[in-house]
Specification:
Layout: E1 40-42, H1 48-54, E2 67-68, E3 71-72, E4 82-85, H2 88-95, E5 101-105, E6 108-117, E7 121-125, E8 131-139, E9 149-152, E10 155-157, E11 164-166, E12 171-176, E13 179-181, E14 188-190, E15 195-200, E16 203-205, E17 211-213, E18 228-231, E19 234-236, E20 244-246, E21 251-254, E22 257-259, E23 266-269, E24 273-277, E25 280-282, E26 288-290, E27 299-303, E28 306-308, H3 336-343
Parallel strand pairs: 4-5, 5-7, 6-8, 7-9, 8-10, 8-11, 9-12, 10-13, 11-14, 12-15, 13-16, 14-17, 15-18, 16-19, 17-20, 18-21, 19-22, 20-23, 21-24, 22-25, 23-26, 24-27, 25-28
Antiparallel strand pairs: 1-4, 2-3
Organism: Streptosporangium vulgare
Subcellular location: Secreted
Protein name: Polysaccharide lyase family 1 protein
């Protein structure tokens, strides 16, 4: 959580890789101890074809692809057992187990609080109805790292705190094609020395605080960390933090669609370095801020963006080029509203 800003407008809820694909060539064993939590189906050899057809495929773009910190890109649970969970108990069990797992979330799962996700997990929604409601996922604890994690094709609603929190030095994370709305605090926070993250093709809506990057103005341990790519996300009527950045350099904000964001689009503070590139801002009075609230100014380079019914962006200083880390192409920003509206969110990939 973060303090020092406008309270959230919604009331608190009450319980209410790059070189590998996420296909598992052989599925072995029962996926853990004999007494696995109820609500879990474990893939067996005879079910291999069906499971492979159901598993999400693809690889990330951006910082999650970078070979660093002893990790070659982001592969999640590839190579581990494939399990399907339908209950909170089973989900909590498998996301917290040691070792690689491909965890398929089927249907609506009501959880409480934040479930700790540890290293080498792919958490993939099945079809169009996978949902985690009432709580959220926290990647890593102070003693159990949440590195090399993929979260795709899941709807997050009504979280009591954050919907997704990437924290405690988690690195190599890919958050892709999710739908996030109507929680209590942040929809997607990345903080506390986390690094090498890609946030892509997500739909953020019906919420105020969308995507925080950097814990607080006083948490200077984030300097030199928090390298994140945000691309092809739909910030749909959310108020602020798309993202709101402290200390990180570089952050790449690429080909996102901003529509009707009441407070601002992107804010760079506390000497963060943010490249805002190829985005489409529609009816956003303050598309880019340099400094925000009590936080000192950051640095922003903006290029090739479209501003329709929007204000003038603030810019300052220079930023490390993302191309020094990974290759990428930029879509024509004029195509972004149609492309992102059609492609962001759940049910848009083969899960």
């Amino acid at each position: 959580m973060n303090t020092g800003h406008r309270p959230h407008r919604h009331p608190r809820r009450h319980r209410s890789a790059v070189t590998a694909m996420l296909l598992v060539a052989a599925l072995a064993g029962t996926g853990g101890a004999a007494g696995a939590a109820s609500g879990t189906t474990t893939a067996r050899a005879g079910e291999t074809a069906g499971r492979l057809a159901a598993a999400c495929t693809g690889t990330p773009t951006g910082f999650a692809t970078v070979n660093a910190l002893g990790q070659n890109g982001t592969t999640g649970g590839a190579g581990g057992p494939v399990v399907t969970v339908t209950t909170a108990a089973a989900l909590k069990d498998y996301v917290g187990r040691a070792g690689a797992y491909v965890i398929q979330v089927s249907g609506r799962i009501q959880v409480s609080g934040m479930l700790t996700v540890v290293a080498n997990k792919s958490i993939l929604g099945v079809g169009t109805t996978a949902e985690i409601t009432g709580g959220g996922l926290q990647l890593g604890s102070t003693t159990r790292p949440g590195n090399n994690v993929i979260i795709r094709n899941i709807r997050f609603t009504g979280a009591e705190d954050d919907s997704i929190s990437v924290t405690n030095k988690a690195h190599h994370v890919w958050i892709d094609h999710n739908d996030l709305s109507d929680g209590y605090d942040g929809l997607l926070d990345i903080k506390r020395e986390s690094d090498f993250v890609t946030v892509s093709w997500n739909h953020f809506h019906h919420h105020s605080k969308s995507a925080l990057l950097g814990h607080s103005d006083n948490y200077t341990a984030d300097i030199g960390k928090l390298r994140v790519t945000y691309h092809h996300n739909f910030f749909d009527g959310t108020d602020q933090r798309h993202p709101r950045v402290r200390f990180a350099d570089p952050v790449h904000v690429l080909n996102n669609y901003y529509r009707n964001n009441a407070l601002y689009g992107v804010a760079s503070t506390e000497n963060a370095g943010v490249l805002v590139e190829g985005n489409y801002f529609e009816n956003v009075a303050h598309p880019i801020y340099v400094g925000y609230d009590k936080s000192g100014p950051g640095r922003v380079v903006e290029r090739n963006n479209r501003y329709v019914g929007s204000g003038t962006p603030q810019t300052a200083g220079t930023v490390v080029e993302p191309r020094t880390y990974y290759p990428y192409t930029v879509d024509d920003p004029a195509t972004v509203p149609a492309t992102v509206s059609a492609g962001a969110g759940v049910g848009k990939i083969g899960c």
